[in-house]
Amino acid sequence: METIVALSTPPGTSGLAVLRLSGPACRGVAKTHLGRGALQARHVYYGAFRVAPSGTGAWKPGSPFAPAQDNASGEILDRLNFVFFPGPASSTGEDVLELYPHGNMLLVDRILKTLLDFPRVRLAGPGEFTRRGFESGKIDLLQAEAVGQLIHAQTVEAVRNAQRIVAGALSAPLKALRDALVDLSVRLELDVDFSEEEADPDYASWVPRLESVQAELAKLATGFAKGRDLARSPRVVIMGAPNAGKSSLINALVDEDRLLVSEIPGTTRDYVEVTLRLPSGLVQLVDTAGLGRPVDGLDELAMERTRRQSETADVRVWVQDGTSAGTEDGGAPHPFSALASGVPAVPGTEQAFVLRLASKSDLPGFHAPEGFLPVSNRTRAGLREFRERLDASVFRDRGVGEDIVLTTERQFRAVMAARERVETALHGMRGKPAIEILAFEIREAAGYLQELLGEISTDEILGKIFSGFCIGK
């Protein structure tokens, strides 16, 4: 088998980088490039990573060197820490060697290229380390999927759910359900084989067991809606009148000039999304065109897009200029001021606003209407409290507590298919059908759970799952 290698940390400058190798060449790499012929398991070494002596392609057997010793025929690329994990007691089930060079990509690239010159060492594919762990029986397919979800999770709740699945909290109950179905299937198969010698099967005693399996599968299927929400960052749509300070608010929240700001109303013509990190996770802030009296067709189109963004929002925030008190044109009531209190006033924008801000609190003549949080984009006054309120509003209903939820369409479809087979079997038991039909339905239900756990899988399914992983994971 070939040995794979990859950079497991993001490219760029850092204190340290991580290079991982998995496969039978790990010991040879350690001897050739690190001068260690014998390695203790899980022991942190410090030494020099050297290029193999010129013209030999490898270090001479029996000639280890001191870590800091220079050697004219073996250029030192870096002095680094490294750890050896012998198989099968490793994450992949194979020998694993981890190198921790300094995080300068000039160094990392040279070390990586040197490793790729070693016989039967190649660059790893996406998720190949995790896939080898799955194929060696270290983890099941649910846990493997959760590793990818853990890396890409955008909310704290999504991280927790993925961590619990990696630890086996979802696999254990599904294996118990699978075992229950397999046991029933075996008993039914025996009834089929010995139908002439045995009495009629006692369906009544089996119905409660199948109903229990059905209830557990139904619970898992119901939780998929929340699991799907965990996989995405919530959308927070910022709305208000032209020149209310929406773009300035977003710039202040992310602490950089991401959006164009001008004193001229109508600068923002189309919606723009910006990522904001809150204590509970990432959210997408959506800056929108101001709502008011359109001055032309383009302005009217921009406002219609704002209304459509409002319909897709998880949370809506209304920003009102605290120096204008919800008026325009010298005191005339703003036609959209009723939106600020959550009163439907615009077709397609009937949803209430969760948070309401009065901007420009640092300017003379400022007044915050009742229920509005005063903020200043220039002095940052009120922004900390707004972030706290936004975090509470966005993530209030997105938690799953102690439950474990399905997060992928593959998982949901497998659970639904197993549930349908169980329901068919239950219906059949109440009508006393042919035993062969019952055995088939329950066997099929067990098969779907085996697919879910990866006990039955194809290269196509595995390729699709692991293709979304990082190269070094």
Structure overview:
The chain is 40% helix and 16% strand. The chain has helices at 26-34, 105-116, 128-135, 141-152, 156-166, 171-193, 203-222, 224-230, 246-254, 297-311, 383-395, 409-431, 435-453, 459-466, and strands at 3-7, 14-16, 19-22, 45-50, 76-85, 96-100, 102-103, 121-123, 235-240, 272-278, 281-287, 315-321, 327-328, 332-333, 355-359, 373-374. The relative contact order is 0.12. The chain folds into 3 domains: 3-124, Probable tRNA modification gtpase trme, domain 1 (Gyrase A, domain 2, 2-Layer Sandwich), CATH 3.30.1360; 144-226 and 406-466, tRNA modification GTPase MnmE domain 2 (Four Helix Bundle (Hemerythrin (Met), subunit A), Up-down Bundle); 235-395, Rossmann fold. A hairpin with a 3-residue loop joins strand 13 and strand 14. Strands 4-5-6-3-1-8 form a 6-stranded mixed beta sheet. A 6-stranded mixed beta sheet has the order 10-11-9-12-15-16, sandwiched between helices. With 473 residues, the chain is an alpha/beta fold.
Q: Which tags fit this structure?
A:
473 residues, alpha/beta, Gyrase A, domain 2, Four Helix Bundle (Hemerythrin (Met), subunit A), Rossmann fold, six-stranded mixed β-sheet, 16% strand, flat
